[in-house]
Amino acid sequence: MRPLELICLLQIHTWPTGKWTYRALAAALGISLAQAHSALRSASAAKLYDREHHLVQSESVLEFLVHGVKYAFPGSRGTPGIGMVTAYHAFPMCTLTRNADIPCVWPTDSGSTKGGRQFTKQQSRDAREIFISTSYSH
Questions:
Q1: DSSP state of 16
Q2: Which of 43, 61, 79, 131 is the most exposed place for a label (fewest CB within 10 A)?
Q3: Do 69 and 37 sit in the same domain of this protein?
Q4: What is the pLDDT of residues 86-110, one digit of tens each?
Q5: DSSP H helix total and E strand total for the chain
Q6: Does residue 131 sit within a domain?
Q7: Which domain holds residue 99?
Q8: Which of 17, 2, 3 lies closest to 131, judged by CA?
């Protein structure tokens, strides 16, 4: 599974049931029609999407988000850099855990914490654009 499949499923989930098209999905996420079809074919193979009825399997997706994402997309500490503190080093998680290691940071010009970057600045911008398009498109 690739991250795009999950993004497509989450986008579809925000729309009224049955009220979407592959063309609308592709346009909303800024991807090609072929990428939209491919992503949902893969999601269907993973039993997260019902291609016959064009439905997101919400309970299965939720189970994957809660229990599977960390295995499918493992995080890794990137190169040192300046950014905004994130993950378990950010408030309120930092009050609940002991953080002896180098903090995780999201690269940004306005950040002030030195730590291990999770993404490059370009990946950070790309992720932000996808998040914004799925959060506010409808």
A1: P
A2: 79
A3: yes
A4: 766 666 766 766 665 777 777 777 7
A5: 6, 5
A6: no
A7: 80-117
A8: 3
